[in-house]
Design goal:
Arc Repressor Mutant, subunit A; 199 residues; single chain; mainly alpha; 2 domains; Rna Polymerase Sigma Factor, Chain: A
């Protein structure tokens, strides 16, 4: 799943090569951001989790097993960060102003290797997609446990067993949640599919 150069960078980073880790950040920051956006659908929160993800990956690099997939390891850190952010979001709805202030600090260049994107933001591009908006709205109707299963499986490509381990539930429960979640999503998007076929 990872190319030879990425494996070389991981090996170098594990020996303390900061430049190698920086190049890994450059390679992974956009897919990690996309992963966070799929979970959170909020650019500020997604950027915060991206920052936290690479900070945790760097400070806990000694915990990474060299025989495993580094990209998948980073994705798991990000997914866990998103789940934590969603839980905290329910508690701190009234403190959104503080979140905006932290985003301003980020835009001023605290971590430019992660925070600089160049062109229009991925959020802006995503917002232009009608299907993306409809799918996001449909995902919002799902219970949180079902939505996380769908995102991990259908967006990020986790296996049923990996999702079970990530969420701490039996594999059969994952399969059941995915079955009912996908059926509900099909029902939610049925009118869109009919509009598209007649459009």
């Amino acid at each position: 799943m990872t190319d030879e150069r990425e494996q070389q960078l991981v090996s170098a980073a594990l020996t303390g090569d900061k430049a190698a880790f920086g190049e890994l950040v450059d390679r992974l920051k956009r897919p990690v951001f996309n992963l966070c956006m799929a979970h959170l659908r909020d650019e500020a929160d997604a950027m915060d989790v991206v920052q936290d993800t690479f900070l945790k990956a760097y400070t806990k690099l000694e915990l990474f097993r060299p025989d495993s997939n580094f990209r998948a390891w980073v994705y798991r850190i990000a997914a866990n960060g998103c789940i934590d952010r969603i839980r905290r979001r329910r508690i701190r709805r009234a403190s959104e102003l503080d979140d905006h202030l932290s985003v301003e600090a980020l835009e001023e260049g605290d971590l430019p290797a992660v925070g600089t994107w160049g062109r229009a933001s991925p959020f802006t591009q995503q917002a232009r997609s009608q299907l993306g908006e409809r799918l996001g709205a449909a995902l919002d109707t799902l219970p949180e446990t079902m939505r996380q299963c769908v995102l991990l499986c259908d967006v990020h490509g986790y296996s049923y067993q990996e999702i079970a381990e990530e969420m701490g539930i039996p594999k059969g429960t994952v399969m059941s949640r995915l079955f009912y979640a996908r059926r509900r999503l099909q029902e939610q998007l049925e009118d869109y599919r009919e509009e598209a076929s007649h459009g």
